[in-house]
Amino acid sequence: QVQLVESGGGLVQPGGSLRLSCTTSGIIFNLHDMGWYRQAPGKQRELVAGITKGGSTNYADSVKGRFTISRDNAKNAVYLQMNSLKPEDTAVYYCNGEFDRGWLGGRNVYWGQGTQVTVSS
Predict the structure, then answer these.
(1) Which of 9, 19, 31 is nearest to 76 (CA)?
(2) Tens of pLDDT along 60-99?
(3) Which end of the chain is less congested by CB atoms within 10 angstroms, N or C?
(4) Is 32 exposed, middle or buried (0-12, 13-18, 19+ CB in 10 A)?
């Protein structure tokens, strides 16, 4: 059974920091590209940051320079360090894992249940 479990969300003041964690089970973690998405009320889910199985990273323009994604293959975990948080960062943050099926075609996609991040004074 595949599980992705997020933690670390909460309420923080503007300018503050949070570190989200996502622990996984049931997958070969080091073969998966991992990412963090977020969804604010009334908006579509959007990619925040991604990290490939090889360690390459990419970020949404809105979080570049403020957020850092990292992974620990030994712990089957991916993290999102969020600094200089803004009210517009308020959303439910979801952990995502994807496995490229190669010659079989397509990708296996997994999601966590989400963790709420609220940035407010």
Answers:
(1) 31
(2) 999 999 999 999 999 999 999 999 999 999 999 999 999 9
(3) N
(4) buried
